[in-house]
Amino acid sequence: MNIEYIGLSSVEKHFVTLDGATDCYIGQHAVISCLEGTKRNGRVVAFEGERAKIAVFEGTQGLSLDNTRTRLLASGFTLALSPEMLGRRFDGVGRERDGLGEVFPERIAEVEKGAIEIGERGIPCSALTDGILLGESKMLLSCYDLYESIFEILQKTAQREKSAVVFASVGNDTDTAERILDAVDGAGLSEKSVSFICSRQSELTEWTVAPLCAVTTAEYLAFERGYDVLVLLCDMSAYLDASRALASGRGYSEGDADAVVSLGLASIANRAGIKADCGGSVTLLSLFSSEQDIPRGYAEML
Amino acid sequence: MDNMTVYRAHGQSVTVLGRTSLKMGQVVYIGEGNAVGEVISLDRDKTEIRLFGVGDGIRMGDTVRAGEEQRRILLRPGYVGGVYDALLRPSLSCLREKHVIEMAVREDDVLCEGQELANIRETDSFVFKATVPRGMGGRVISIEKSGEYAPDYTLAILKDDSGALHEISMSESIRVGKAPFKASCDIDSADLVIFVKTECRDNDLVAFLQRLRECDEGGGRLIDKSIVIRDTTLLRDAAYNTAATLTRGYEDMGYRVSIVTEDTI
Fold first, then answer.
1. Nearest residue of B to residue A274, measured between CA atoms
2. Which of A142, B30, B171, B235 gets the highest tally of CB atoms within 10 A of its CB?
3. Considering chain B, what is the average pLDDT of its residues?
């Protein structure tokens, strides 16, 4: 049933509430259209009776109780995928940001659903660089000579027959993001890279979605298009801060919030891998600016 | 029968409106996705449920079904060699719809609790023993022949001294207790090893399973006597309780069981 809800019941911080939502579920994708023509995306995070609470990815700035129309879609948040994405730049929720127009989708995928079942997973064994295997997930602490190390890894990636880079910049200052993008260009991968850039000024909600968009794109390029994809997620400490800040609004107690946040991080790390019976790989490098954010036993240096 | 539906879902908590006949600690199943939770507070006009795990996918108005009064697991053949979550839901399953069984008793035999009824070969090195559940016993008045049966098929009917009849299948539902257990790393001499893997990545798990397949120290492949239970921070107690309960079940079959946790590896 396609119902458009006119207006909102409340707007607070990153969340809006909607009355009369008779059939919604946790994780459902909401599209909020403002009367001046812009659209924002959101995710149902809680409900009570017919009142649904929605986290708005692009922030609630400018929303009022009357100037919106909201639709609840039949799936979770989705991303339009296409080989045309290579060489393009998007924001944290997958809207184009380079002025080259919308991507014509070949496939639509839910960002929260991983592409590899345990039963079809292969064991990473061929090396990308000295310390990194194709299909591995690594958690690294950002450090001074990080860019050199990343540049080396990018060069090795570029040497592979069919390779691509997906970069998600979360809460970095423009400088950091540009330096990594320069490294991607320098390695000759600019036409084979997809970037999801959300700046320090973007909304916290967007920070939590950008890594999901990145891994979903990577899975598509790897397992449907046969690329060896290197995913760079920087800075995952910012992602964790944002998730923590949103957890209480989602209804998790302080004690549970940490568990939920680390569950989210683990589910992103789990998206790296290779399939036993098809080509392509997703190699994931998560960069952290704070050592405490790296789960025990997973911290590594380049 | 109460008509219980989800009124509120917020984080890990779910509320059902109205007076229900649920009991504290009772297990409930929610919606098509069968999300599992337990009752944590009761009131005249609402019942609070705490979910095991996150509430993704829970829909407004989803039916809430009452489950066991305490969490139970089904001890049945087929777990060995597989990977399960803290509530024993399979993530890599070896469970089959039917199992070949070999009966170990005849009609008119008198059996007491814990006594062996039938054998089911699960792997090269592990045989599941279907036993008479606790609190049951008596003379076998009807019994199936050896053959292939579903796990819940009644294999034998016992008649006890008071004349009551007990139907026995190869699977048994056992109550999950909060029993303490001793973790060990004694893998060689154990008949069965239950690994509890905490916060384990899929890649690491696949590599771990491969190591279990390759590890053969004379007594057969290690995977043939292993059960892997995955654990997340939200479910930690549940995983250890499940492991301890499974251990009790297999120990009743006369096996030596080791629980290996992350800390003991």
1. B203
2. B30
3. 88
Query: Do the Cβ atoms of B201 and A23 come within 8 Å?
Result: no
Task: Name the residue facing A47 among B60, B91, B234 (closest C-beta).
Answer: B60
Q: B10, A48: Cβ pair inside 8 Å?
A: yes
Chain A to chain B, count of Cβ pairs less than 8 Å apart?
97
β-strand pairing of B226-231 with B147-149: unpaired
Which residue in B has a C-alpha nearest to residue A282's C-alpha? Answer: B203
Tell whether B54 lies on the interface with A, counting CB pairs under 8 A.
Answer: yes
Helix (H) or strand (E) holding A169: strand A163-172
Question: Average of pLDDT values for B143-169?
Answer: 91
| Whole-angstrom distance, CA of residue B146 vs CA of residue B64 | 40
Residue with tokens 């792997």: B123
Could you tell me the two tokens for A240?
A: 């964790």
* Alpha carbon separation from B250 to A4, A187, B245, B256 (Å, rounded): 56, 57, 9, 8
CA distance linking residue A266 with residue A272, whole number of Å: 11
Q: What is the pLDDT of residues B136-150, one digit of tens each?
A: 889 999 999 999 999
- Spatial distance between the Cα atoms of B182 and B186, rounded to a whole number of angstroms: 11
Query: Is B94 touching A (CB cutoff 8 A)?
Result: no
Task: Tell me the one-letter amino acid at A113.
Answer: K
| CA end-to-end distance (rounded Å), chain B | 48
Q: In the beta sheet, which residues pair with residue A30?
A: A42, A72
Does residue B264 register a pLDDT over 60?
Answer: no
- Which contacts (CB < 8 Å, 24+ apart) does range A107-110 have? A107/A80, A107/A81, A107/A82, A107/A220, A107/A224, A108/A78, A108/A79, A108/A80, A108/A81, A109/A78, A109/A79, A109/A81, A109/A216, A109/A219, A109/A220, A110/A75, A110/A76, A110/A77, A110/A78, A110/A216
Residue identified by tokens 């609630």 is A60
The span from the CA of A219 to the CA of A227, in Å, is 9
> Model-level pTM?
0.89
Distance CA A132, CA A136 (A): 7
HSE-up of A61 (CA within 13 Å, CB side)? 8
